[in-house]
Structure of Adenine DNA glycosylase:
Amino acid sequence: MIGEMPKTADELLKLLPGVGKYTAGAIASIAYGQATGIVDGNVIRVLCRMRKMGGDSTSQPVQDKLWQHANSLVDPDKAGDFNQGMMELGATVCTPKTPSCNTCPVRSLCLANKEVEFNKQEKTKELTKDKKKSTITDIECCIDSCPLCIQNSEVWDSSLGVQNYPRKGKKKAAREEQTKVCIVCKKNKSEALYCIVQRPQKGLLAGLWEFPSLKIDGNCSEEVSPQQLLLDSCGLHVDTITSTCHVGEVVHLFSHIHQTYIIDSITVEEEDRDTVVTDPPSTKPLRWVKEEELHESAVSTAMKKVFKAFTDKMNSKTPAKAKKQKVDKKQPSINSFFKSKS
C-alpha cells in the first residue's frame, strides 16, 4: 500500500486483513464519498420490509439481493450521509419490535406496510362474504418457492404485521472443533521473538496472523508433537528445543463454531535456524515478531486469548518475591511473654 490508505470498497476488502464487506463499504462511502452501499442488521431490516423479502435473510440469494438494492439506492452525491441515514432509520424507526410505521418517512414505499393494509381489508371482506371454501388452488402453491419470498410452508402472522420481515432460517447448532496451537518463542539477546503465520486469503479469519495451528480431526491425533505440528502447519523445521510447556485450553465461540484451542509452547535456541520446507509449495507466510509487534499485527481475538493464556501461565511459573514487612515496635515480641528466673 506504500503508506496510503485504500480509498475504494474493493481495495479495502482486498488489501486490509480482517476488513469485511460492510466495513469496507462504510469506510469508502463515509470517509471517501464512494457511491457504494452498506448492509448491516439495521439496513437488512429496512430493505426486507420495504421490498417484502421473506426469504432467509442470512441465505446467499437474499444477501446478494440486499447488496444489489443497497448499491442501487445509494445517493451518488451523498453516499456517506445516505448510508448513515439508512442505518439510523433501522435503529430508531424501523426497529425489530414495535416499529414506528406511522412516522416512517418511507412508509409509502414500504411493501410490507402495504401488505399489512391489504390483509386488514381482506379480513373485513371475509366477515361479509360466503364462508364456503374455494376449491381452486392458489397458483402460488403450484410453483417452486422463490428464495426471496416467504415460503409456502410458513405462516403469515397477522399480529406481527411488518415484523414478519426479515426472516431467519433455523439456527444450526455450532459444531465442535479442536485445534492444536504451538507458541514458538526464540530468545534474541534480551528480547523474545514469536513465530506467527498468515492464514489463507479466503475463508474464516482470512488473511489474519496466528500462531502455528493444526486442526484436530480423524487424520490428526491430539498427541501430535510440537515439531510435527510446526512442520505440518507451516513447514517450519526446528532442530533444538530448550524447553516445552503445556499452557492449557482456551475456548472461543464463532457464530457457527465452538472452537477449543489446545495450547503448547516451546522455546528454541537463538542460533537455531528456522528452515521453511518447500514441499508442499503452498507454505504459509511466516514472521518472527516481538510482543509489541504481535499486538500491532492483524491478529484475531481468538489468538489474543491464546497469547494471554500463555503469558498468564509464564507469569505464574515465576515465583513472586516476598515483600519485606516492617516490624511495629509497639508490637510485643514473643520473648516478652517469658520471664527469666531470678
